[in-house]
Amino acid sequence: MIHTPHVDWFAISTVLVLLGASFIALLGAVLVPAALRRTFAVTVAALGSLGGIVTSVWLYVDSANGHRVIADSFYRDRWTALTQVILCATTLATVLVGADRVREHESEFFALLLASAAGMTFFVGSANLMVMFLSLEWFSIALYVLCAIDYDLEGSLEAGLKYLVVGSFGSAALLFGSALVYGATNRIGFAEIAQQVGVHGLSGDLLLVLGLAMILAGLAFKSSAAPFHMWTPDVYQGAPTTVTAFMSSATKVAAFALTFRILRTAFPQEAHLWTWALAGIAVASLVIGNLAALVQTDVKRLLAYSSISHAGFILIGLSTGTALGGRALMYYLVPYSAMAFGSFAIVAARERELGKPVTLENLAGFGWERPFLGVAMWFFMFGFAGLPLGGGFIGKFYVLSAAYDHGWTWLVIVGVLATLVSLYYYLGVVRAIYMRGPQLAVATGGSPPRETLLHIAVGAALVVSVGSLVAVGPLITLARHAASALPF
Q1: 2 Cβ contact partners less than 8 Å away, ≥ 6 residues apart
Q2: How confident is the model at residue 277 (pLDDT cuts 50, 70, 90)?
Q3: With the CA atoms of 110, 122, 142 and 41 taken in that order, what torsion angle do they form, in degrees rounded to the nearest 10?
Q4: Residue 4 falls within a domain, yes or no?
Q5: N or C: fewer beta carbons within 10 Å in the chain?
Q6: Has residue 5 been placed in a domain?
Q7: Is residue 237 included in any domain, yes or no?
Q8: Angle made by CA atoms 378, 223, 423, in degrees to the nearest 5
Q9: Angular region, 394: left φ>0, alpha ψ -120 to 50, beta rest
């Protein structure tokens, strides 16, 4: 007789909703007439994303006492639920941006998008090394295909191939590191690994430390942290901009949330090693991201290097390993994901007008031609720079406060200097939008497309970005409750 574990279906309801919607969208490719296929796929994807938001919020409310479910392989707690809310909201915004743009392979595009989101929502709740790796591959494979799905677009196939090759190295490092940790502890559960290290005095064991280092390297690949960032500028530039918008926010949210969980839960005894390692990666990300962004003229590449620098800021909070750092990390992810998604969505709008890559040169006059999108981009750039026009200001202040509280004044100084450097290229984007005349090619091409759904998505991102400054108290409370699910 086979004994199967009890399955808490509600704990994985968000994953099931997204995965079910993905299957339905894919069925539309063969069962729905071609004339209705795009409308059907968009509707299913939007409803699936909304359903994911509802179930995630419900789980957050109903999971005050976090615990593991399904044979201790998945965490049902507020850290998982709040991260899932951010991921599902980003997925819904991506559906809105892609609704007006995707003309071919509509069903496949939205099915892959939902499948990737489902993998991420499962990834952030991982409670053992096996679930972590399988869910990582789940959403990564979907992203590889999404990057190359627009094969008529110059660079799309190249971006998909680069992401596949480099991502495979990251996955291999993660898998090998997991094998080493299992070899040292004979356990795959996060909590059990920490227990074995404590009981048997394995702290500092060579296999354990090497395994931890390789796991960190694998997760750093996914989060675009330097020096594991080499794929990011090329993939962000070559992939369809709708996909880039999704990757820039959702992938970072999933990777950083899981990284903090595994470090605090599985490797608390090695904190004296991984805190300094992550601080070094944070400094490398800040230096490389900001200095490389200074010389970029392609806006997507500029934003790609910007995302690398923001990975550094997020890592400042993560590297402290404290409860304050956990709250700062969770808060930072909310405005950052909104600003990252919104800025790439605006680039997508300009790209559709011009029919070619967006540069600082041909971004000229955009603020006067599309006033709402221009103002939104202005707010996003100032938010990225940490100016007090959005939650980016509080996010940076929060992570730097965590570093100061941890006694790392030197890391605070590095963060402040990086912010000062970033002002140059963020203000350069605003200057291009407003302080140059409009492009003749755009002016003679007629009115720009309305793209109502894209405007709604950008508006929602702007509301979240600015609202995270206005409603900072409630958001910090949510982040505090989420972080309380982790062991400190």
Answers
A1: none
A2: very high
A3: -10
A4: no
A5: N
A6: no
A7: yes
A8: 30
A9: alpha
Q: Which residue has the tokens 């900072």?
A: 472
Cα 70 from Cα 396, distance rounded (Å): 37
The DSSP line for 245-265 is HHIIIIIHHHHHHHHHHHHHH
Helix (H, G, I), strand (E, B) or coil at 164: helix
Q: Which residues contact 262 (CB under 8 A, 6 or more apart)?
A: 126, 132, 190, 215
Please state whether the predicted TM-score (pTM) of the whole model is above 0.85: yes
Model pLDDT for residues 333-346, shown as the tens digit of each residue: 999 999 999 999 99
The CA angle 357-359-363, to the nearest 5 degrees, is: 105
Give the N- to C-terminal CA distance of the chain in Å, as an integer. Answer: 41
Number of domains in the chain: 1
Question: How far apart are alpha carbons 52 and 183 in whole angstroms?
Answer: 37
Give the chain's length. 488
| Three-state secondary structure call for residue 205 | coil
Mean pLDDT of 201-227: 92
User: Cβ of 425: how many Cβ atoms within 10 Å?
Assistant: 23
Residue 428: other Cβ atoms inside 10 A: 18
Note the pLDDT tens digit of each residue in 16-42: 999 999 999 999 888 888 888 889 999
Residues 251 and 336: beta-carbon distance below 8 Å: no
Strand-pair partners of 69: 74
Give the span between the Cα atoms of 44 and 479, in whole angstroms. Answer: 30
Residue 68, beta-bridge partner list:
75
Query: At residue 188, what are phi and psi to the nearest 5 degrees?
Result: -115, -20
Which amino acid would we find at residue 168? S
Cα distance between residue 220 and residue 6, in whole Å: 34
Token readout for 2 is 């086979």
Task: Provide φ and ψ at 2, rounded to 5°.
Answer: -95, 125
Cα-based distances in Å from 105 to 32, 38, 145: 13, 9, 12
Give the structural domain span for 278.
13-483
Cα atoms in the 13 Å half-sphere on the side-chain side of 127: 19
Upstream peptide bond of 227 is cis (omega within 30 degrees of 0): yes
